[in-house]
Amino acid sequence: MAKITISAPGKLMLLGEHAVVYNHPCLVTAVDQRMQVTITILKDSIFELEAPDVDIKGYKKSLSSLGKGDIPKGAKFVELAVANFRHKYPFQGGIHIETHSEFSSQFGFGSSSASTVCTLKALSDLFKINLSSKDIFDLSYKTILDIQGKGSGFDIAAAIYGGTLYFLTGGKKIVPLEARGLDLVVGYSGIKADTVSLINMVKEKMNTHKEAIDKIFDGITDLVEQAHQAILEKDWERLGTFMNYNQDYLEDLGVSTEKLNILIKAARDAGAYGAKLSGAGGGDCMIALVSPETKEKVSQAIENNGGKVIKVSLNAPGVRIEI
Ligand code: PMV
Fold first, then answer.
1. Known catalytic membership, residue 155
2. Staple partner for 274: which of 130, 244, 283, 286, CB 3.0–4.6 Å?
3. Burial of residue 258 (number of CB atoms within 10 Å: 0-12, 13-18, 19+)
4. Phi-psi region for residue 55, left (φ > 0), alpha (ψ -120 to 50) or beta?
5. Residue range(s) in the chain whose domain bears CATH number 3.30.70.890
6. Where in the chain is the domain with CATH 3.30.230.10?
7. What ranges in 59-110 are assigned the alpha helix state H?
8. Which one-letter DSSP state was computed for residue 21?
9. What pLDDT is recorded for position 235?
10. Binding-site residues, ligand 1, Cβ < 6 A
11. 17, 24, 33, 260: residue to mutate for ligand 1 pocket, most atoms within 8 A of CB
12. Ligand 1 closest atom vs CA 193
């Protein structure tokens, strides 16, 4: 039986979250905690999924009912990815999928996007459909929008390309940046955030206070452009300052939490160049930009203030075939 295993990295948003949903740029970096997806081709026309990390065990349905009916949350992204692929590139026979993640889906590292990317890459290789990275991006992005309705696709880009990227909504620009030396401490706030409700909350504000929100997004864009330059110059001190200013805007937007603010302040007081929440907010993780000298002290400060430090290694390669 033909079989393939694909892996893709998780991600952390450096600057630009929320604004990037509204046609503004952001900076994202991939983390080398990987999602792994193994697909085996079956004779019978059936779809099987084992995703124990998200409580999916023994999930089975006919290929013709893919994407229909009540789909459990943990199965949605992989199932819709297969449905979208099959709609575009019809294939015979069934498939058995197993997913395994090196990171908890609670952290907001982008497990849904990484599993979507892995699934599409695996299917294209198994069925010998020659898809470019951009083709995989477009099909993955469609899958995310089918499920969430809104989103920028930055997490998909990180899973596909890896490294550090300057990214514009919907993949209109995806520019790899050389960012060796960038070092982050990641602190989990202990609360799982719901990205879609936060996106909707900002959308609501956009409807009622468009001018104010546009101003915030323009300010964030300025910071992203300057931070882009700081990364190219490896000026970590300046990058840290821009992260701090970005956090101010996120607080104005109302997406930070008391717990995140406490961890961010602790990291700054302990000597981080800068610190901010990373992602949708409402929980998940904060990030602190550190030097080799301040890393341990910043990690300690986050732990002492009730955060959980998650060890990550940066500069992660994008989606790849494992076996
Ligand atoms: O919740 P996360 O970590 O996937 O980050 C969401 C970032 C947003 O800008 C709010 C949404 C998006 O798709 O860009």
1. yes
2. 244
3. exposed
4. left
5. 184-310
6. 3-178+316-321
7. 76-88
8. G
9. 98
10. 13, 17-18, 20-21, 108, 110, 151-152, 154-155, 195, 199, 279-280, 284
11. 17
12. 1
For residue 42, the cross-strand partners are 94
- Rg of the chain (C-alpha set): 20
Q: At the topology level of CATH, where does 3-178+316-321 sit?
A: Ribosomal Protein S5; domain 2 (3.30.230)
Q: Judging by beta carbons within 10 Å of its beta carbon (0-12, 13-18, 19+), is residue 280 exposed, middle or buried?
A: buried
How is 154-189 classified by DSSP, letter by letter?
A: HHHHHHHHBSEEEEEGGGTEEEEE--TT--EEEEE-
Distance CA 265, CA 293 (A): 18
Pick the CATH number of 184-310 from 3.40.50.261, 1.20.1440.130, 3.10.20.30, 3.30.70.890: 3.30.70.890
Q: What is the pLDDT of residue 109?
A: 86
| Nearest protein Cα to ligand 1, atom 1 | 280
The set of residues, in sequence order, having a beta carbon less than 8 Å from that of 304 and lying 6+ positions away, is 266
For residue 260, the CA-to-ligand 1 centroid distance in Å is: 16
Place of tokens 């995989």: 136
Distance in angstroms between the alpha carbons of the first and the last residue of the chain: 14
The pLDDT, as a whole number, for residue 289 is: 98
What pLDDT score does 192 carry?
87
Q: For residue 104, how many other CB atoms are within 10 A of its CB?
A: 15
